[in-house]
């Protein structure tokens, strides 16, 4: 039987009750719903809308319902549709008719908006914390491998030598922007919607500022219709999570590549890898693969919510109940991904011998040879052309740059001299001494700046 009686002569059909119920997933709003209701009851008493004694009965009842839920004793009823009505019905059951006064000057529309904002605020704080821990792991790994060189890639072809630390610090920067996006989205989430009622505001002398203070909000919503009908803060969270996971997924992809037999740049800790049920030799990077895999699912939730919202007339529409599953799933996916990925980064081992060997291959110093000619007066375009021909010649002879004689070099340009042999991976890296470049001094500074931004905690120190 439905909780809402009044004009209805029959209860909703069982299939309708099941189809429209949100309790299977919105039960997890209970701590926010109860906190919101306690603040609301206190406010109603403070304003003389209900008596102090009534408020005490109500808040006491709500607190004991919270205990029931936490102890797994609460019976969620699908016919009561959602968490709001489940709690309210239980309250009335426990404290009697006075429980029915709680919903004075309130609607489920502003109530659910409040609950979601409270959950979102907490989710953002947790994401920020976990992002920071992840950054600490990444910067820690960079610092622990400060001297390690590797090929930098474009098109997944060896391009120029870089420090591994420089490569890893690229992720620090991405994650820093991700954190900024979450902090920014927090500002717009931190808005208290109670008092909006169903859509038009409420016809009681309520104190919205009191509610905001009690519930820890810094702002009040300024339009009741907007407050109950928009879910842009959820979209923003999902968008920020999507971007963050896009970054994590790229690093996951690199970890998958690097741990392959072909690259062999890193070794994952046994605790962060899995075996094959059939091929005993295998050590699979499943965690990284699932980071990459789960990213798609988070994008899906973002598009789903944007699509749900785009055609809705103001104000509340039941379609908006569809905001929750995707949101909760995104919160869980982001937090668990950050947690497990942090552990994987902290425990992986870099194989510096192999990255060092890889960087010696594939004419990776070609740009440096061109730069060498430019410094001797050759225009860059022709220098590029000369070195291009030199590479093709060396490939044909099966020689590396170092194997070429000075006479062979001079065959391509008279500007080549003995000092061409001083071009090495190290000199190439040292030469890129610009702000944001891979030169050791610059990377050292970038590491310092990174630690300043993410706190003193230094991994492995
Ligand atoms: N279960 C609903 C939701 O999640 C709560 C708000 C219901 N409001 C209403 N007018 N039916 O959106």
- How are the strands ordered across the major sheet? 1-2
CATH homologous superfamily descriptor of the largest domain? Fumarase/aspartase (Central domain)
List all distinct small molecules, including ions and cofactors, that are bound in this structure. arginine
Which H/E pattern describes the elements? HHHHHHEEHEHEHHEHHEHHHHHH
Q: How many DSSP E strands?
A: 6
Give a structural overview.
A two-stranded antiparallel ribbon has the order 1-2. Helix 3 (30-46) packs across helix 8 (208-215) and helix 4 (52-70) crosses helix 5. It has three domains: 2-104, Orthogonal Bundle (Fumarase C, Chain B, domain 1); 109-145 and 160-196 and 216-358, Fumarase C, Chain A, domain 2 (Up-down Bundle), CATH 1.20.200.10; 361-458, Orthogonal Bundle (Ribonucleotide Reductase Protein R1, domain 1). The model is unreliable at 457-461 (pLDDT under 50). The protein has helices at residues 14-20, 23-26, 30-46, 52-70, 83-95, 108-144, 164-189, 208-215, 224-229, 232-258, 286-309, 323-347, 352-359, 366-375, 380-397, 406-410, 425-431, 440-454, and strands at residues 149-154, 157-163, 191-192, 219-220, 266-267, 349-350. It has 461 residues and is mainly alpha-helical. Strand 3 (191-192), helix 8 (208-215) and strand 4 form a beta-alpha-beta unit. Bound molecules: arginine. Arginine is lined by residues 22, 26, 82, 108-109, 112, 316, 318, 320-321.
């Amino acid at each position: 039987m439905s909780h809402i009686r009044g004009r209805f002569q029959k209860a909703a059909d069982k299939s309708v009750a099941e189809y429209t119920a949100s309790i299977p997933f919105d039960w997890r709003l209970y701590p926010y719903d109860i906190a919101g209701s306690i603040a609301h009851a206190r406010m109603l008493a403070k304003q003389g809308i209900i008596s102090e004694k009534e408020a005490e009965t109500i808040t006491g009842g709500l607190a004991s319902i919270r205990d029931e839920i936490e102890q797994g004793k609460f019976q969620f009823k699908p016919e009561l549709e959602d968490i709001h009505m489940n709690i309210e019905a239980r309250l009335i059951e426990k404290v009697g008719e006075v429980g029915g006064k709680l919903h004075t000057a309130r609607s489920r529309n502003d109530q659910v908006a409040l609950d979601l904002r409270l959950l979102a605020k907490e989710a953002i704080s947790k994401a920020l914390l976990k992002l920071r821990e992840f950054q600490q792991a990444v910067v820690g790994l960079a610092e622990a491998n400060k001297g390690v060189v590797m090929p930098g890639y474009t098109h997944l072809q060896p391009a120029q030598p870089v420090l591994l630390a420089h490569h890893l610090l690229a992720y620090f920067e991405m994650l820093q922007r991700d954190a900024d996006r979450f902090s920014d989205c927090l500002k717009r989430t931190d808005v208290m919607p109670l008092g909006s009622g169903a859509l038009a505001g409420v016809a009681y002398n309520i104190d919205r500022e009191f509610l905001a203070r009690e519930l820890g909000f810094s702002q009040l919503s300024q339009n009741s219709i907007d407050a109950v009908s928009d879910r842009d803060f959820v979209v923003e969270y999902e968008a920020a999570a999507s971007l963050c996971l896009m970054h994590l997924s790229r690093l996951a992809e690199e970890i998958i590549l690097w741990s392959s037999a072909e690259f062999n740049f890193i070794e994952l800790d046994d605790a962060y890898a899995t075996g094959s049920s059939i091929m005993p030799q295998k050590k699979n990077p499943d965690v990284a693969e699932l980071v990459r895999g789960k990213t798609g699912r988070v994008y899906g939730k973002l598009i789903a919510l944007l699509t749900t919202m785009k055609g809705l007339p103001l104000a509340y529409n039941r379609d908006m109940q569809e905001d929750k599953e995707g949101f909760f799933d995104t919160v869980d996916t982001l937090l668990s991904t950050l947690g497990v990925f942090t552990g994987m980064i902290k425990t992986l081992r870099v194989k510096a011998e192999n990255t060092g060997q890889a960087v010696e291959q594939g004419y990776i110093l070609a740009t440096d040879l061109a730069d060498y000619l430019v410094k001797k007066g050759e225009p860059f375009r022709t220098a590029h052309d000369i070195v291009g021909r030199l590479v093709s010649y060396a490939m044909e002879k099966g020689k590396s740059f170092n194997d070429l004689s000075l006479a062979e070099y001079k065959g391509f340009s008279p500007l080549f001299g003995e000092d061409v042999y001083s071009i090495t991976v190290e000199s190439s890296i040292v030469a890129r001494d610009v702000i944001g470049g891979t030169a050791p001094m610059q990377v050292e500074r970038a590491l310092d700046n990174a630690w300043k931004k993410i706190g003193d905690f230094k991994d492995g120190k």
